[in-house]
Protein: FAD assembly factor SdhE
Amino acid sequence: MLELDVLLMPFAKDVFPSLDPVNQQRYLKLLDCEDQDMFQWFMRKTEPQDQEIKAIVDYILERVQPA
Structure:
């Protein structure tokens, strides 16, 4: 899904290398999720049930859309 690529590719390139190992694992776990689920999470229509995935989704959203 192009929208996810636009969000996740720069994050992977610019931020992933500096993440601590826990968040790197969370990010890799996120990549195993269904595109439609991820799209819903990043559009803030739903939240992941898995707290590990929720943590990395929230982190990515904070980086992309600072409060």
